[in-house]
Amino acid sequence: MKRIAFFAALAIGLLGATHSATAPGITFIDHDKVSAAFAKGMPLIEVGGYKIHASRREGPGAVEVHTRDTDIVYVLDGTATLVLGGEMAGGKTIAPEEIRGTSIRNGQVRTIVKGDVLVIPNNTPHWFQKVPGPMTYYVVKVRSAEGGSK
Fold this sequence. Notes:
The chain is α+β, with helices and mostly antiparallel strands. The protein contains two helices and 15 strands.
């Protein structure tokens, strides 16, 4: 518990967020800081049980698999072709609990647009295969128990 409190305090301090003494556990991130985060594509907060990212894509990316994080995505603006599930090709562990690959075989291809919400369970390959222009989206990453599930 002390570890989670430390990381929450660190994240709040780094982001300049306000923590209210009258309402413990509430984090407020000013709209200017949120806008600045979306301009670059960067995390808003990362604590033990979850992460919230202000994501921005200008083009396609690598295939991703998060072994412990379920991604909850809300598209704010733009569009992309997303490939979900199937089998990752060329997978390599790039960090603890993070695998990247080159493509997906037998995945489901879906076009996502402004207003769409997706829930991508941990251990599920996903790939922003085509991104024709700037795309912004929130990602809430919810941590599963040690070792993940599927």
